[in-house]
Specification:
Helix content is about 35%, strand content about 20%. By secondary structure, the protein is an alpha/beta fold. Strand 7, helix 5 and strand 8 form a beta-alpha-beta unit.
């Protein structure tokens, strides 16, 4: 874990950091779901570290309750997760991610090239990192609420990869079409739709996990990150 200083001087918050075995490499911000920096998020960081990245998952719920670690296995945890989501300030969350990105870029061994990958709530935030910051590349897995933020799509100047679940219970078909239409108008954005899968199809052990779709999405993500972070992404 590392300590990150907030940009608005509200305090410090923690982030789980996994470092590559080699001498150095680019960085990746791993942006949490509504369950906090739990075992699933930490495992994603560890996997990215094995691929040669400094992977940092900041605790974005710290302003409400530091150290949240929930699962998707019980109703009580779901209710707590949704309560945290409803109380979450998206704009402050983006600022906290910017603080984490700055800390990652300054980390000894990090090349300074930093991408972001987010899931669910993190998928929305990864999109906003692409629209609002100088992140070198971003990946959004089944981001929620993007249809209400499409006025920001033209602001994207660096690569964004979007994974969209065709049967996402949180994103209507109409919303998906709006998102895809806006994405098609920006040459920096690539969107893939996964037929027959629901929200969180890439969450291992989750009720909607679909191994084939998850494997395809992760393969595309790995190729995307390698292309844009390891081969000369700039900031």
């Amino acid at each position: 874990m590392i300590q990150i200083e907030s940009l608005d001087n509200s305090g410090k918050f923690q982030g789980y950091l996994a470092a590559p075995a080699g001498k150095g490499g680019p960085g990746v911000l791993v942006i949490q779901e509504i369950f906090g920096v739990n075992a699933g998020m930490r495992a994603l960081c560890d996997d990215l570290a094995q691929q040669g990245y400094f992977a940092l998952c900041p605790d974005l719920f710290w302003r409400q309750q530091p150290g949240v670690q929930l699962t998707d296995k019980t109703d009580d945890e779901w209710q707590r997760a949704f309560a945290l989501y409803q109380g979450f300030d998206v704009d402050k969350g983006v600022n906290d991610l910017m603080a984490a990105m700055g800390a990652l870029r300054k980390l000894a061994g990090c090349s300074g090239v930093v991408g972001a990958v987010g899931y669910c709530l993190g998928g929305k935030l990864a999109y906003l990192m692409a629209t609002r910051t100088d992140v070198d590349a971003a990946i959004s897995y089944y981001g929620v609420g993007l249809e209400d933020m499409l006025d920001e799509m033209p602001e994207i100047r660096r690569p964004l990869l979007m994974h969209i679940a065709a049967e996402d219970k949180f994103v209507t078909k109409e919303a998906q079409q709006k998102i895809l239409a806006a994405a098609a108008r920006n040459p920096h954005v690539v969107a893939h739709v996964y037929a027959g899968v629901d929200h969180a199809f890439a969450r291992p052990g989750g009720q909607n996990f679909q191994a084939e779709a998850a494997q395809l999405a992760h393969a595309r993500s790995a190729q995307f990150l390698a292309a844009h972070l390891k081969k000369g992404g700039a900031h």
